[in-house]
Specification:
Elements: H1 2-16, E1 42-49, H2 56-66, E2 68-75, H3 77-86, H4 89-92, E3 95-97, H5 102-105, E4 114-119, E5 121-130, H6 131-137, H7 146-154, E6 160-163, H8 169-183, H9 194-205, E7 208-212, H10 215-228, E8 236-240, H11 241-250, E9 257-260, E10 268-269, E11 272-276, H12 281-295, H13 297-307, E12 310-311, H14 339-353, E13 357-364, H15 372-387, H16 391-396, E14 403-409, E15 417-420, H17 427-438, H18 448-465, E16 470-476, H19 487-493, E17 502-506, H20 512-522, E18 525-528, H21 534-542
Length: 545
């Protein structure tokens, strides 16, 4: 009888928590007793947006209350969508938990891959500016439109950081929101509207001086740069409201951010915990128990207090830090209604809208790279020329207007090869890069730091000619330095080097500690290709360039 009763409650919950519903299972109204927890057993395996790792303490409490352990595996937006659409997610996971399912649901057949969805929290994508800058612009008492924000950014009245729309939902939501607002139609954007909007969108992105593949790394980088007042510091962030409020509460900022809520609307993440299709009855019971726990008013308040996300359950009072100040609504801007429009917008961002990139690859061609390793490197570079036809591959290829440099090294640095990709008809240049990759050969020792010095010299020289680019260096090596300069020499020269982040790839027998130090000293990040694929690491880095 007890098993029957639990199953009946779980079934009732699932019927009330269908996709798009705000049903809360057994969650009570504020002030009421919440009732007994639904129970499950075992593990719920969840493919989740990387920013949701901050919910781990709440998920630990959920396990104690329900008997269900939630195991999160972080993923980027496009990789996550691709996993679901291809059917691979169902092989390894029971549920997905993205910031939003809107882009996923545009894909044909996606509806057959997912089941019940329960909204857990919400967070609009807005603008946060240093208080002094917001006051100077008159936005502490006035809510500007996205059009006003775009004009001010184009006139260089402020600078900001934003994640890459091809890698992160916050960046994609910002792109969708700005484009929808600037179109002024009040309707879902279509692919034909993007080209006429290009000049105004370019003005908005002219103010972007910091980029990232994840909201968390962007926030950390912003705080670090602001505290150090270094050359990478910007005036604000376009990000989730939760990230901006968390930064203000962290005590890490020398000057708090004013959260600017555009008067014409926002795009909001609603974090739907979504069951994958075809799971067994025990998994459905486990899902119901966790979803019910997360939607209880007491837990919703805890999520709000600990992560600064808004409650998904209605009638819960917001903390005073949430805006907009003085009241006013947050209209929801329309999301593209067709996949072609969404993909065209992401493609246009990379090729025509954003500030162009300058990417310098420092590639280990020493003898230890022979065999599978050099073939992996060739495959990784070839994939970035458009040969990778996967969903993530479409948007991580080299972009129009991008400047790509290749610096091979072994016993000493090799010849620098430069490829300037035009805004249109860029396939011939991509074919040249593909040919270059196919001709790479290995031999000799490993002069890591001598090659890095060449890369920094190239960055400095090119910045004098054309300073208005996102410049980054990617270092791939599978071993320790055996020739030329050493780490101490690099450390000594860092203050004199161009301010360019180095993204290091952990690979083979490479010195992990040194790769981490190089990334830390330059404001970069490490990417691990020891357990995953090298092409995968190269694609992930693209979000930070």
């Amino acid at each position: 009888m007890r098993r029957f009763a639990v199953a009946l409650v779980a079934a009732t919950f699932l019927l009330g928590a269908c996709t798009g519903s705000d049903g809360a299972g057994t969650a009570a109204k504020p002030g009421e007793t919440e009732g007994p927890y639904l129970k499950g057993s075992g593990t719920l395996r969840v493919l989740a947006s990387s920013e949701l790792t901050d919910l781990q303490p709440i998920l630990d409490a959920a396990k104690a209350a329900t008997g269900v352990e939630v195991k999160l595996q972080a993923t980027g937006t496009l990789d996550g969508v691709e996993n679901v659409v291809s059917g691979n997610a169902a092989k390894n996971f029971d549920a997905i938990w993205f910031a939003s399912n809107r882009y996923l649901q545009l894909h044909p057949g996606a509806g057959d891959k997912i089941g019940t969805a329960t909204k857990v929290a919400t967070s609009p994508v807005v603008l946060g500016l240093r208080e002094s800058v917001a006051k100077q612009l008159g936005w502490t008492d006035h809510r500007p439109t996205w059009s006003e924000i775009a004009v001010a950014a184009g006139e260089h009245k402020f600078t900001y950081g934003m994640t890459n729309p091809a890698s992160s939902n916050s960046g994609f939501s910002a792109l969708v929101g700005v484009a929808a607002a600037l179109s002024g139609t009040g309707a879902a954007l279509n692919a034909e509207q993007i080209a006429p909007l290009t000049p105004r969108l370019r003005a908005f992105f002219a103010g972007q001086n910091l980029t990232s593949g994840s909201s968390g790394w962007l926030a950390d980088s912003f705080a670090k740069n602001a505290a150090e007042k270094n050359d990478h510091a910007v005036d604000g962030l376009v990000n989730y409201e939760s990230v901006l409020l968390s930064l203000n509460a962290s005590g890490k900022l020398p000057e708090k951010l004013t959260v600017v809520y555009p008067s014409d609307g926002v795009v909001t993440a609603d974090y739907p915990l979504t069951l994958l299709a075809g799971v067994n009855e025990q998994t459905k019971t486990n899902y119901a128990a966790i979803a019910d726990y997360l939607r209880r008013p007491s837990v919703q308040k805890e999520i709000m207090a600990k992560t600064w996300r808004r409650p998904a359950v209605p009638n819960l009072q917001l903390a005073p830090d949430f805006g907009p100040k003085g009241g006013g609504s947050l209209p929801e801007l329309p999301f593209p209604g067709k996949l072609e429009a969404a993909n065209a917008l992401i493609g246009a961002f990379g090729d025509a809208l954003r500030k162009p990139a300058r990417t310098i690859y420092v590639l280990d061609l020493s003898g230890s790279m022979k065999g599978e390793r050099i073939e992996g490197l060739k495959s990784a570079l070839t994939g970035l020329t458009g040969a990778d036809s996967s969903l993530s591959g479409q948007f991580t290829r080299f972009n129009g207007r991008e400047q790509v440099l290749m610096i091979p090294f072994s016993t000493k640095p090799g010849q620098v090869s430069r490829f300037d990709i035009p805004e249109g008809n860029f396939q011939p240049t991509l074919d040249q890069i593909r040919g270059y990759a196919g001709g790479l050969k290995v031999s000799g020792d490993t002069a890591i730091y001598d090659a890095l010095f060449v890369a920094f010299d190239q960055a400095a020289a090119l910045a004098k000619e054309d300073p208005d680019r996102f410049t980054s260096i990617v270092l791939l090596t599978d071993g320790e330095v055996t020739a030329g300069s050493r780490l101490d020499a690099f450390k000594a020269r860092v203050p004199q080097l161009a301010k360019v982040p180095v993204f290091t790839i952990l690979f083979g027998e490479g010195n992990v500690a040194e790769m981490q130090q190089i990334a830390d000293l330059t404001g970069g990040k490490t990417f691990d290709a020891r357990t995953g694929s090298l092409p995968g690491a190269f694609k992930e880095i693209r979000g930070y360039q």
